[in-house]
Specification:
The protein folds into two domains: about 100 residues, Adenine-specific Methyltransferase, Domain 2 (Adenine-specific Methyltransferase, domain 2, Orthogonal Bundle), CATH 1.10.1020.10; about 100 residues, Vaccinia Virus protein VP39 (Rossmann fold, 3-Layer(aba) Sandwich), CATH 3.40.50.150. Helices cover about 30% and strands about 15% of the residues. α1 packs across α3 and α2 packs across α3. By secondary structure, the protein is an alpha/beta fold. β3, α5 and β4 form a beta-alpha-beta unit. The chain contains six helices and six strands; from the N terminus they run βααααββαβαββ. It binds S-adenosylmethionine. The site of S-adenosylmethionine (SAM) has 12 residues, from loops.
């Protein structure tokens, strides 16, 4: 099972399970981007967020927008700007992904609503402990980081969690009995010019 509070990637994965082929315009220019973003937001506003067209548009927006950021305003509208990539290789036929995704269950909601059975393996990849936390319209605060670490520590299951390796995140997991390691992540600390390599944390319990 894969769960995410953001319903749009979940909708895309569900459509890929059916063997999606894209029929929307996939042009890497600002005009098409603006049109597709408006169309996506109007589908979501009109209760059509689970439609095939919304899945196709979400894929296009994710590939074409600035740094692949998935950012929403407080009313749920996708508002990441145009990405200005020189070249984008879009996939138009997802048939090959179908057999891989078939056994999966995709669900959208808060992690605390998940029913985890003893012995299930759990991997948690929450929003990083950074200033920018608006992956979903709800955001992810420091209180949510604590809520997640507490919830994971209470499971009778093997657990792996990853996060940005800030001091307070390392302590959060160390204090709850996780084995904590850090590694240099293959990404930068932010997307605005600071070229410092980010430190990634892996916290492991019961593995
Ligand atoms: C670092 S991203 C991980 C993305 C995913 N692992 C992937 O590779 O596409 C963090 C994810 O946590 C999700 N998220 C935020 N708050 C959540 C919550 N309360 N419950 C479940 N998922 C949440 C976000 O929507 C976002 O997709």
């Amino acid at each position: 099972m894969l769960n995410d509070i953001n319903p749009h990637p979940v909708n895309l994965y569900r459509w890929i399970q059916t063997g999606l082929t894209l029929s929307i315009p996939l042009n890497n220019n600002r005009e098409t981007f603006d049109r597709n973003r408006n169309q996506f937001n109007s589908l979501v506003r009109g209760g059509q967020g689970e439609s095939r067209e919304a899945a196709e548009l979400f894929y296009y927006l994710n590939r074409t927008c600035y740094n692949g950021l998935c950012r929403f305003n407080s009313s749920g509208g996708f508002n990441t700007p145009f990405g200005r990539y020189k070249r984008i290789n879009y996939i138009t036929d997802f048939q090959d992904y179908r057999p891989v995704l078939t056994p999966w269950k995709f669900q959208s909601g808060d992690f605390e609503r998940l029913k985890v059975r003893r012995g299930d393996f759990v991997y948690a990849d929450p929003p990083y402990d950074v200033e920018f936390t608006h992956y979903s319209k709800e955001g992810f605060s420091w209180e949510d980081q604590i809520r997640l670490a507490d919830w994971l520590a209470g499971l009778e299951s093997p657990v792996v969690a990853s996060n940005q390796g800030t001091e307070r995140v390392l302590n959060l997991y160390l204090e709850r009995g996780f084995k904590v390691t850090t590694l240099k992540a293959p990404r930068m600390i932010n997307c605005t010019g600071d070229r410092t390599k980010a430190t990634e944390m892996l916290a492991v319990r019961g593995v």
